[in-house]
Write a structure and sequence with these properties.
Blueprint: E1 3-7, E2 10-14, E3 19-23, H1 26-34, E4 37-41, H2 46-56, E5 60-63, H3 77-93, E6 97-100, H4 102-110, E7 116-117, E8 122-128, E9 132-137, E10 140-141, E11 150-155, E12 161-166, E13 171-174, H5 186-196
């Protein structure tokens, strides 16, 4: 039986209808499914998400990208609340956790790391570890790790941290979006499988 992976969603504001909607790029659900995982889409309502999490008992957690954290100018504190709760679930239940872009920012922020505004990191590509080109869609990132909780595993050519892993927990973050590539790279498929298998 395939493993269930809890997946967070962005919050979109539809002003014409005065609505807040949970949304996810369909490509990330397909990416998980193609890796033989079942995505469990969690709403940005902690009470409902907690019930779903406890019923379906996911084997891992993926914090998706999209938008900024509320304390860095974003407008969805309910998502921050949910993702902080999920990080705690990862720690308390030894569940593997991957954060993509905003998800990595949420992880670092949870552990006391400070984000900084970055130049030339939105809608572009850059080289990481002097060998691989990745996409980039973020306004904020980590220039250094101050808390000693993480090891930087990938650096951009400007020295900013593109990926890290936690020293004690099965927690990882990447700033690029594997799902936004025309063809997902074998490196990213292997990384996702290593984390969740």
């Amino acid at each position: 039986m395939s493993k269930i992976i809890a997946l967070t969603q962005r919050v979109d504001f539809i002003t014409d209808y005065n609505e807040k909607r949970d949304a996810i790029d369909q490509r990330i659900s397909k990416l998980l499914f193609n890796c033989d995982y079942i995505p469990l889409l969690l709403p940005n309502d902690l009470a409902i998400a907690t019930v779903l999490f406890n019923i379906y008992k996911p084997s891992g957690i993926l914090l998706s990208g999209g938008g900024d954290l509320a304390n860095y100018g974003g407008a969805s504190p309910e998502r921050d609340e949910l993702e902080n709760w999920l990080i705690k679930q990862s720690i308390d239940n030894n569940l593997p956790l991957l954060g993509i872009c905003r998800g990595m920012q949420a992880i670092g922020n949870h552990f006391g790391e400070k984000l900084e505004q970055l130049k030339n990191h939105v809608a572009t590509t850059h080289t990481i570890n002097a060998s691989r080109e990745v996409n980039s869609f973020h306004n904020f990132g980590f220039v250094e790790l101050k808390t000693q909780n993480f090891i930087a595993t990938h650096l951009a050519n400007d020295g900013s941290i593109e990926a890290f892993k936690h020293n004690s927990y099965n927690i990882y973050g990447i700033m690029w979006h594997p799902e936004r590539e025309a063809i997902v790279t074998s490196e990213d498929l292997n990384l996702i499988r290593e984390i969740f298998d």
